[in-house]
Amino acid sequence: MGSTATRELRLAALNRLGGKCSISGCEWTHPDVLEIDHIKPVGDGKLRISNRFTYLIILKMTHPEDEYQLLCACHHNLKTVRDLEDILEFRAQTRGVNDLQSSNKGSRSIDCQL
Ligand SMILES: [Zn+2]
């Protein structure tokens, strides 16, 4: 019964965040495919945010969309990879190496086919 309540909390939180993948052009709305993503990378990336506590926070926030967004599973994976790339790029730049991928930086798009 606890899991049912959590599922209902999750659905409410998903609805609060718009109920669909936030990548423009992506039409995924199925709750089992959608994941809640912290817009800014959290800590060292080990912190899992998709839990009951997160749902409660989202439901209490006035503007949860400022901190959280919905991504389908595919786009969430891609964003996680991209965040990691950004971190590696930042590290490289602080070492004085800045010729890294300046060519495709702006044009890198997330393309998702499920
Ligand atoms: Zn998507």
Task: Kindly describe this structure.
Strands 1-2 form a two-stranded antiparallel ribbon. The chain has one domain. It is globular. It is mainly α. The two termini are 32 Å apart. It is built from 3 helices and 2 strands; from the N terminus they run αβαβα. Mean pLDDT is 80; it is low at 97-108. The protein has helices spanning 2-16, 52-60, 73-94, and strands spanning 34-38, 68-72. Zinc ion binds next to β2 and α3.
Q: Which structural traits does this protein have?
A:
single chain; mainly alpha; two-stranded antiparallel ribbon; 3 helices
Report how far the terminal alpha carbons are from each other: 32 Å
Backbone CA Rg: 16 Å
Number of helices: 3
Q: Could you give the count of β-strands? A: 2
Question: Can you tell me the overall shape?
Answer: globular
Based on secondary structure, the structural category is mainly alpha
Helix content: 40-55%
Order of helices and strands: HEHEH
State the domain count: 1
Low-confidence stretches: 97-108
Bound molecules: zinc ion
Q: Sketch the major β-sheet.
A: 2 strands, antiparallel
| DSSP strand content | 5-15%
Mean pLDDT: 80
User: Strand order across the biggest sheet?
Assistant: 1-2
What's the gist of this structure?
The chain is built from three helices and two strands. It is mainly alpha-helical. It has a two-stranded antiparallel ribbon with strand order 1-2.
Summarize the helices and strands and which ones pair or pack:
Blueprint: H1 2-16, E1 34-38, H2 52-60, E2 68-72, H3 73-94
Antiparallel strand pairs: 1-2
Helix pairs in contact: 1-2
The structure holds zinc ion.
